[in-house]
Write a sequence for this structure.
């Protein structure tokens, strides 16, 4: 297998962190997002959406989407288990994972209308940005309630829910200069703990 990826993209970071936590080694093909390579016909043949990560399987087929890649690899390598040990726990992990994934989409959409980085690239509508930011805040509040007093999002153990959410926090805080989740003390403490893990290092 080969992983077509990028070193800093949040979705690519999900897979990189997962591989590190599982102790798995997959050959990586690092792509430059600024070069236009993802828009070429050659790459569009791999993933029509023109996005990374994409996992190239041994049979020559391709699997896109970070969460799909993670769950596929988890099926192949179930130990150590990162998706939950019971049907109820797995459902809980997937529910939080879905909230985290939706939060990522909403956060990017909100930043496109509010962050200076996008001001020269897109027509920004402050009212749209404010409405989207309201949805971002709702999702953060929901995750704050989920984590409660647990060390991880879905309980006492690290799961893919944590792996899906952490790169969003990392990108916002470390690369975009946004105090993402600062009003959620439990999530902030969770982020600080996760940031110390070897897998979280670029």
């Amino acid at each position: 297998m080969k992983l077509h990826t990028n070193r800093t993209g949040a979705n690519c970071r999900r897979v990189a962190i997962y591989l590190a936590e599982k102790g798995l080694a997959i050959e990586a093909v690092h792509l430059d997002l600024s070069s236009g390579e993802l828009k070429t016909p050659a790459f569009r043949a791999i993933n029509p959406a023109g996005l990374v990560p994409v996992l190239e399987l041994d049979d020559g087929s391709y699997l896109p989407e970070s969460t799909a890649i993670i769950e596929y690899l988890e099926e192949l390598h179930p130990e150590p288990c990162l998706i939950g040990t019971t049907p109820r726990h797995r459902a809980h992990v997937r529910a939080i994972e879905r909230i985290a994934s939706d939060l990522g989409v909403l956060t990017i959409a909100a930043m496109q209308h509010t962050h200076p980085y996008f001001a020269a690239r897109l027509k920004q509508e402050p009212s749209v940005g404010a409405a989207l930011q309201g949805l971002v805040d709702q999702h953060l509040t929901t995750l704050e309630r989920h984590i409660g007093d647990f060390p991880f999002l879905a309980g006492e153990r690290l799961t893919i829910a944590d792996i899906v959410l952490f790169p969003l926090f990392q990108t916002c805080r470390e690369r975009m200069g946004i105090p993402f989740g600062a009003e959620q003390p439990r999530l902030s403490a969770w982020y600080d703990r996760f940031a110390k893990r070897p897998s979280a290092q670029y």
Notes: The radius of gyration is 17 Å. The mean pLDDT is 96. The longest helix spans residues 87-114.
